[in-house]
Amino acid sequence: MNGRRFTRPRPLAERGWAGLRVGLLGGSFNPAHEGHRHLSLLALQLLDLDQVWWMVSPGNPLKPARGMATFEQRYENAKRKARHPRIVVSGIERDLGTRYTADTIPALQARFPQTRFVWLMGADNLAQIHRWQRWSTIFRTVPMAVFDRPPRGFHSLFSPAARRFARQRIDAASARRLAYAAPPAWVFFASKQNPLSATALRRAGGWLRIEEGIPTLDEHGR
Predict the structure, then answer these.
(1) Keywords, A to Z (predicted)?
(2) Residue at 85 is within a domain
(3) pLDDT of residue 66
């Protein structure tokens, strides 16, 4: 880390979250970018959430290790990108010792039994969530909100997961109560999305500026 001290993220305290509605945005954040922030701000508004947690994964089983920045680099970059008092950047999966979303969500629900969680993801993830470990269990464990994201968009509504749980999809007009819905329950938002993706940023040389060993993005996400 070239002399820069990394402060290990503390586990989220159980107290203080009782009764709150929390959106969970998990991922590698390799790197975090304005698309993540844009989705989070939409979720706060459209789902009437109290907080959104960015859960920086220690490692994504579906993504190759090559080209993956360290957890410390991704965590610190996410903290700089969040820039909002109701977006909490967390490394809680590291503390829970979970690797798959199907394990993480029940562990969170056990640790925060009085917190209402909603899983957040872009349409690109809906299109391929059927590849995730025990993916149908995820739908049956937590309400889910899917946000349109180019270029997948409405094509993701024809994915295996969307077809499997088509009858459990609720209307976007009712989404403000999604946190209280019994799963499986999910909503698709067709609102305009930020097209940025971490993959595109990496291909374009997105991790450009190096400050004491930590890659960051400039304000234009380049």
Answers:
(1) ATP-binding, NAD, Nucleotide-binding, Nucleotidyltransferase, Pyridine nucleotide biosynthesis, Transferase
(2) yes
(3) 73
Q: Residue 142's pLDDT band (boundaries 50, 70, 90)?
A: very high
Q: What is the rounded average pLDDT of the residues 11-29?
A: 87
Region label for 212, one of left (φ > 0), alpha (ψ between -120 and 50) or beta (otherwise)? left
Number of structural domains (the chain) is: 1
Distance CA 82, CA 94 (A): 20
The answer to whether residue 137 sits within a structural domain is yes
31 in a structural domain? yes
Cβ pair 36, 29 in contact under 8 A: yes
Q: Residue 12 falls within a domain, yes or no? A: no
Number of Cα atoms under 13 Å in the Cβ half of residue 201:
25
- Of 65, 66, 67, 58, give the one whose Cα is nearest residue 9: 58
- CA–CA separation, 151 and 163 (whole Å): 19
- Which CATH number covers residue 95? 3.40.50.620
For 212, the domain range is: 21-216
